[in-house]
Amino acid sequence: MRLVISLIIVSLSLAACSNLSKSASTLRHNYLAITSPGISMDETIPLIKKKIKPEGSLLIREGIPCLDKEEIQHQKGAHSIRVNLGWYYWGTVNTPVYGEWCFNDNKKLIDIIIYKAIDDRTNGY
Fold it and tell me: Are 113 and 68 in contact (CB under 8 A)?
């Protein structure tokens, strides 16, 4: 009986995290539909907490731009919010997923960057 209950709990946990297994571009598109470009940093925070419901920390970084991991020398915006979105299993590997909401000088959203820790380009994130 304990085994059955444990399997049910694990299955529910994996199902809850399965949304994060989508591609980074799909997640970015979905999150941009919730936090539309042009909204303020102050408006973005409650939307992330209530509609995206990250499983990890949310760090507000005033004066720190987003870093495009594909082009390290390229920074986006002037301010950012870094979010530990959660994790999913890829086979037997626990894969954390992170997002950065990028804001301009006026603290208006300009872009979102999504990273998965299994991606070698995100080492040191």
Answer: yes
Coil vs helix vs strand at 109: strand
- Separation between Cα atoms, residue 51 and residue 37, nearest integer Å: 16
Residue 117 CA: distances (Å) to CA of 21, 28, 58, 87? 12, 16, 17, 9
The residue range of the domain holding 84 is: 2-122
**With a threshold of 0.85, does the pTM exceed it?**
no
Domain count, the chain: 1
Helix (H, G, I), strand (E, B) or coil at 61: strand
- Which residues lie below 8 Å from residue 23, measured CB to CB, with a gap of 6+? none
**Span 70-79, pLDDT tens digits:** 666 678 899 9
